Amino acid sequence: MQPPAPSPLSRPAEGLRCVLAPNPSPMTLHGTNTYILGEGQVALIDPGPALPAHLAAILAALAPGERISHIFVTHAHLDHSGLARPLAEATGAPVLAFGDARAGRSAGMAARAIAGLVPGGEGVDATFVPDARLAHGDRVDAGGWRLEALHTPGHFGNHLSFAWAGGTFSGDHVMGWASTLISPPDGDLADYMRSLDRLAAARAARLFPGHGAPIESPAARIAELATHRRTRTAQILAELAVGPLSISELVVRLYADTTPSLHPAARRNVLAHLIDLENNKIVAVDESGDGEPRYRQA
């Protein structure tokens, strides 16, 4: 059962405000969470989609005399980064992120992108360019707050999480209401699993995701997501043990209880698992036929 929609403006922790963007969908739940951290000189995490109403709501959430000193972007999907440039122009604050929309891709995924593999499932902000780039471990502080950048690729190559004294902003890498879409070439399952380990090692008391409510038991949720991915890999291998199958055939078998409108996203997740298995020489692809490629055990 879907949780009730939260307030457009909430305070999920002391010193933290959340402005909910009006972009609900099956991929975003109630909308994108835009966080305002601190008081006076505040940090803003994930501007959200380029909607004038959301820009107005963010500015209205500031107290008299407050100003946004830094704009942090977890990753270059339009529902997170689309408003970054308009907000920077309105406030004078710099935009900070890992890099542009192609930054952080593994060499293998970069090669697949060159070969013509296109993303699917979420809108890539292809024109996104930050004013300043953050590497893993970089820290930024001002006005009584401090954020540490954690490079957490997997959902997206340039995905950053941001550690704070009160918890970690996990973007789309870890959410409580759903598992994460991994859509190659921007998504990478091997990177995703390594980034889960990185977030687990950070031992945050709470996670503040890009969509949905705060996660009160981060270690348990991270372990649950890792188990989910390992289980999905095992299911794919069990199906391929019977004989070669296409991605469409795998989706029908593995996502029989999922609404058909979400099958395009399911296809991307299955592709991510198959690429990982292919990289590890566990499965091979047969593209010799006239139709959709079929995968088989190597």
User: Beta-strand level of the residues, as a percent range?
Assistant: 15-25%
- Tell me, what is the CATH class of the largest domain? Alpha Beta
Question: CATH architecture of the largest domain, please?
Answer: 4-Layer Sandwich
- How many separate domains? 2
User: Please, how many helices?
Assistant: 8
Class by SSE composition: alpha/beta
Please trace the helix and strand order, writing H or E for each element. EEEEHEHHEHEEEEEHEHEHHEE
The CATH H-level superfamily of the largest domain is Ribonuclease Z/Hydroxyacylglutathione hydrolase-like
How would you describe what is shown here?
This protein is α/β, with parallel strands linked by helices and 298 residues long. The protein folds into two domains: 9-216, Metallo-beta-lactamase, Chain A; 217-298, Winged helix-like DNA-binding domain superfamily/Winged helix DNA-binding domain (Arc Repressor Mutant, subunit A, Orthogonal Bundle), CATH 1.10.10.10. Helices cover 31% and strands 22% of the residues. The protein contains eight helices and 15 strands. The protein has helices spanning 52-60, 78-81, 84-91, 107-114, 189-202, 218-240, 247-254, 263-279; strands at residues 9-13, 16-20, 33-37, 41-45, 67-72, 95-97, 132-133, 139-142, 145-151, 160-164, 167-171, 207-209, 245-246, 283-286, 294-297. A seven-stranded mixed beta sheet has the order 1-2-3-4-5-6-7. The longest helix has 23 residues, at 218-240. The protein is elongated, with a radius of gyration of 19 Å.
